[in-house]
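Collaborator request, handled under Task 6.
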Amino acid sequence: MPALSKLTLVACAAWAACTLVPPAAAQTAASGRLAPLVDEIYPRLEALYQDLHAHPELGFQETRTAAALAAQMRALGFEVTEGVGRTGVVALYRNGSGPTVLVRTELDALPMEEKTGLPYASRARAQWNGSETFVAHSCGHDVHMASWVGTAQALLALKDQWHGTLMFIGQPAEESVGGAKAMVDDGLFKRFPKPDFAFALHTDPMAYGYVGYRAGPMTSAADGLEITFKGRGGHGSAPHATIDPIAIGAHFVTDVQTVVSREKNPFEFGVVTIGAFQAGTVGNIIPAEARLSGTIRSYDPAVRRKLIDGVRRTALASAASAGAPEPELHVGEGGVGAVVNDAALVQRTVAALQAQLGADHVVQVPPITASEDFSVLGENGIPSMFFVVGVSDPKDVAASKQPGGKPLPFNHSPFFAPVPEPSIKVGVRAMTTAVLSAMGAKH
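Structure tokens returned to the collaborator:
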């Protein structure tokens, strides 16, 4: 997920109960075939995971990653198309007549340095925004990819239990929320079957062995804002001869929060954050421009429109009040909507997950304030479900909740280090179960 970790601290507190039941208890509820099958294939998944972790790539640069996944799927007998949406992968497997079920994984990593100290830690570097940066899978997409391949293997081993078409997609550039749209624009649902259902999972720092779900909004909409306030530059000792864009921008930063606190229903989620304010070169020169950028988050479409309109109106008013030229505004362009889980699909899938993993290990969770372009699939009229899989040692989770306890590294932390085996195994079991349920199969 871009910009933010997958859960807020509030959400994690609400999930504290996830550490109360030992994950080993879930084995007693496992079906007869799936759990042993996942145990059997896991060593190959671990090797793949470590390789992907050590060789991360940024969005729309995932050539090695895409080739590795394409090779895995071809070896399983999937019909594979590469280069969809620049670096995306589409893998199809037909097993008679029945629903088409899409399973998505992301391919991309983050422009940051990993500091986990793992023996397979990334030291990769790449060009990003005109300069060299470290690259790391600090959002868990490597876990997703290993689980994705493992789910494909498991479903083929269990193909006597389902009929239909598997549509596995490897999506580029999730972190910049552009990859899903790129694949759709490149004919994802015209060149290939349009799915009847779609699933995606994501790592979460809750205890491994647990799956989190909810019906309705699961992630927030994300809209960017880029504003350039224009003034008249001059000497810092003579501000009367200038129009100070820094002062205009400063007013905007504070005034825009009244859109959140005074115009939006306080019971509706909405956030406007200014993350960058760039202006000037030295202390005694008033610059001619000030550039601000930020993010707007929401769940409800009406709130989303209200926030975007409020940001625009406040920016124009801030400039007008100073007698400045109209600012250059780019607000809400290229954003993504909230991931909204289909209620009927969630209800059916949760019943299957509880039978597979144990009812205590499938928990309803609050919506996530970060964002995801998996929403693009749902916006194309496909009933979809996005769920989370725990990746942290339960002992560490419990310790983090004690007074003075060490905080857990969240997604996007340089210290984010999922425990691979239980995380990937539960990811495979959960996603395989979800697909089987959507296929109307026994599980």
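The cover message to the collaborator said: "Residues 27 and 145 are 23 Å apart (CA to CA). The radius of gyration is 23 Å. Please let us know whether this matches your experimental observations."
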